[in-house]
Each structure stands twice: as structure tokens, then as C-alpha cells.
Design a protein that fits this description.
The protein is an alpha/beta fold. About 40% of the residues lie in helices and about 15% in strands. Strands 2, 5, 6, 7, 8 and 12 form a 6-stranded parallel β-sheet that branches. A two-stranded antiparallel sheet has the order 1-11.
Length: about 260
């Protein structure tokens, strides 16, 4: 009887040891956290270091070096760059995103800026969205804005870069509310020319009529801009009032990091 008891104790001890070894050798997988909010970064111009020093629009302009350092930091911190469509599906509850997701956007569609950012995006394996003013893409090859031909080329050769709308022809410094018909016509031109489904409102200006007209004509999501609308994108926001974070040329690297690593991230 004593011998049987000892056998049972030994068997239990052996089982416990094997379970402990399995735990040490094969630790339980750690579940990655999903995104509760997403930073949508907003840029305008990227120029050479020499031009940056003399550029009259210092707030709107970064040097290539500044932009590259920010992108390198995003890669080092394991951020996942996403598309507008991925953000939309996440917002609607159709998709989960990693906690460190980011949407990188450029407003206006300056041709030289686009050519400068492509090598940086390729180097750090990141994606970006360019919101172009539709009418300016027909200004010709010598315009400061990207041309229709170049958009078509890059859609084939550079899938990490997507093009969406900054309206067709409503990018006016003088903010003026227009009729539903005017907004609807603008949205239709965007869809007919390029199939745009996402829009960044010029200067962040948006009206209820604009939202209704864009929604009725195929635009799936709208992005805000400006200090009043600064913040992370969340699922609680209207899909036609998605907040963004401006990255000005005057921002230091420490300020950039602090903006993205703020409490609650």
C-alpha cells in the first residue's frame, strides 16, 4: 500500500514537472492589441533642405530630411501604414487594425512633393494618401500640381501611394457655402474622372449640404483639418467628420513623438 502511494506521488510530481516545462518552452501567445483610435497625419509640402530655409510657407513645408526622420521613427516603432479604405472598414466595424496603425496623408497634390516622398515611403515600407484638387490635374505637365498622366502612371507603378479627393474645384481660400446641386456636381466629377471615394475638405470647411451631396454621390468618408478639428480618428466620429493631426514644418522630432505617443494610445 505504501509502495502504491509512493508511485502515485511520483506520477503526480512528474506530470507537474512536464506541465511546467511545457509552459516555459512554449509560452502562451500574447494577443496583440487592436486600435481604438488612429492618427491621420496631414502634410502639405516636402522640399529640399536648401529650399526649406527660404520657403515663405514655413508651417506648411517640411524638408526631405525632416519627413524621412519621421517615417524612420514610425518604422522603428512598428507602425502599420494603412489606406483610406482600411480606415473606413475599421470605422464601420468591418476590420480590426493593429494598435499602432497610422494613415499618412498629403493635401493639394504638389508634383515635386510627391516625387520626393516616394523614395522615403519605399525605404521604410510605408503607404500614403494624396488628396488632389481634381481640376488642377488638368493644368498640364509644367504645373506645380500633379498631372492626370502622372496619376495614372503612379497608380500602376507605385501601389503604396493612393490618390483621393481634395474636391474637384472647391479649394478656395474664401470659404463660401454653396448649393446642394453645386456640391453634387463636384462629387460627380471626382467619381467620373478618378473614382475617388474619400475627400479631405479644403481648409477643413464643410457644410451639411456638402456632406449630404457627397454621401449621395459615392463619397464614403470625409476628413477635417485645422486646430479646431485636431485629434485622432475614432469610431465614434461621423464618417464625414474624421479628425486629423497636422504635421507642420515647425514641429520638432520630440513634438512629433509626443503627439503620437500621447496618453490613451
Amino acid at each position: 500500500m505504501k509502495q502504491g502511494y509512493l508511485k502515485r506521488v511520483c506520477a503526480m510530481a512528474l506530470t507537474a514537472c512536464l506541465m511546467l516545462m511545457a509552459t516555459v518552452a512554449f509560452p502562451a501567445p500574447v494577443r496583440a492589441e487592436n486600435a481604438r483610435n488612429v492618427p491621420v497625419l496631414t502634410y502639405h509640402k516636402v522640399v529640399s533642405k536648401k529650399r526649406k530655409k527660404k520657403h515663405p510657407e514655413a508651417r506648411m513645408t517640411l524638408s526631405v530630411g525632416q519627413f524621412a526622420r519621421q517615417m524612420r521613427w514610425l518604422r522603428e516603432k512598428h507602425y502599420t501604414a494603412i489606406t483610406c479604405d482600411e480606415l473606413y472598414r475599421w470605422h464601420e466595424g468591418e476590420l480590426t487594425l493593429p494598435k499602432r496603425s497610422v494613415l499618412i496623408t498629403f493635401d493639394d497634390g504638389y508634383a515635386s512633393t510627391i516625387e520626393r516622398i516616394i523614395p522615403v515611403l519605399e525605404k521604410y515600407d510605408l503607404k500614403a494618401t494624396v488628396f488632389v484638387i481634381g481640376a488642377t490635374t488638368y493644368y498640364g505637365e509644367h504645373s506645380k500640381y500633379i498631372s492626370t498622366r502622372r496619376i495614372r502612371e503612379l497608380r500602376k507603378s507605385c501601389p503604396r501611394l493612393e490618390f483621393q479627393s481634395h474636391t474637384w474645384n472647391l479649394h478656395k481660400k474664401k470659404r463660401k457655402a454653396r448649393s446642394y446641386a453645386r456640391y453634387a456636381a463636384d462629387a460627380k466629377k471626382q467619381m467620373d474622372a478618378y473614382g475617388f471615394e474619400y475627400v479631405a475638405y479644403p481648409f477643413g470647411f464643410v457644410t451639411r449640404k456638402m456632406v449630404r451631396a457627397y454621401r449621395d454621390n459615392g463619397i464614403r468618408m470625409g476628413f477635417l483639418f485645422g486646430d479646431m478639428f485636431s485629434g485622432f480618428a475614432t469610431r465614434n466620429q461621423s464618417r464625414y467628420a474624421i479628425r486629423r493631426l497636422e504635421v507642420p514644418g515647425t514641429m520638432t522630432m520630440d513634438e512629433f513623438k509626443k503627439m503620437l505617443e500621447s496618453p490613451g494610445r
